[in-house]
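Reopening this one. Same input as before:
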Amino acid sequence: MRVTTKMMIGNVGRDLFRNTEKLSAANQKVASQKEIAKASDNPLGMGRILDYRKTISTIDQYQENIAQGKAWLEFTESTLDLVSTLLSEAREVASGEHSLSPSAEDITQGGDAASHPISISIPLPEAVTVGVAQFQADYAAGSGTWSISNGLAQYPTAQISGDADGFSVDLDNDGKTDIAATADGSLSADASVSFDLRSLTTEAEQVKGLYDQIMGLANTRLGSSYIFAGHQTGSPPYSRDADYNITYSGDDGGISRIMGASETVQINATGNEIFNKNEDVFSILKDLIDGLDANDEAVINAQTEKLQNAMVQVNNVRIKGGPKLTRLETTDNYWTNYSQHVQEALSATEDADMATAILELKAQETAYETALSAAARVIQKSLVNFLS
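Same output, byte for byte:
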């Protein structure tokens, strides 16, 4: 059989093409660091890779759900802790002596010494050094005199003077006013600091402030969601009128997060569960406000036990959140460990052994260069050979 030049050129070309394909594949493996880059490389291996990736994606979603649940529960806990503290303050007001401050108008008019003795506690600014954080002065409407009951232990010669419109204090008895308060709601100290004299408010005003603070906490929002509104997370669940009658606009819907193939956990507590279940927190506070405004001891005292029960009601919701948070954290740790094992399996299937891949690339480069050299030696004829 005669071997023609055309046949040799064809064989050399096919050999070079095969070597080029092998070199390209080896180069692609090193560049991508992947053993399997497409399904045709290893169909069974690619099937396992897709399963591993789906599993990892599912775990990532579970962990994102868990993170959302933890944030919601932790935020709920911190909010209800503040609610419990404010209810405790309201209970202290209800269980204390209730013959305290009248309104600022009563102070201006002098009040009644028998039923309205005035006690003012003022948080002192740092500019006034008296050794304590509070200064307290008591006003007897009948005699029209003020007396110091707390805050000036370091100033035994301090002098206080004034009437129903306010008072002034000379700490070091040098004839100069160091602290001054007026019934219009202002305090000055060392003639350099002025701020609202909130302690001139009545106990009823104090409870109104607690009411509004608790309502603000009941309307707490995490991101764009009101956390105590049930399913109605897009709008504030609580509002009140001028008479402190409350309206709940939420519902009793539960919000859950999926944290496993068949595992869910409810992360929210509704306003009804927290504030309206057995004791109506806002109704209790309204009754306390009404009692304080009317100086009705029976009504005021009746709220003490109710406020204690309301605190228990709030704390019971907090107790439920603890096990849920623990469960979420335990599940999160499980998925973290499981994801690591799946990642390792994916890497073992998909990733190339770089040492082996580099050696293979070098071998293919050498084979390709050798093939080129052989082809150059085999195909040496020129156009002159064909013309001769």
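So the earlier flakiness isn't reproducible anymore. For the record, The longest helix spans residues 297-350.
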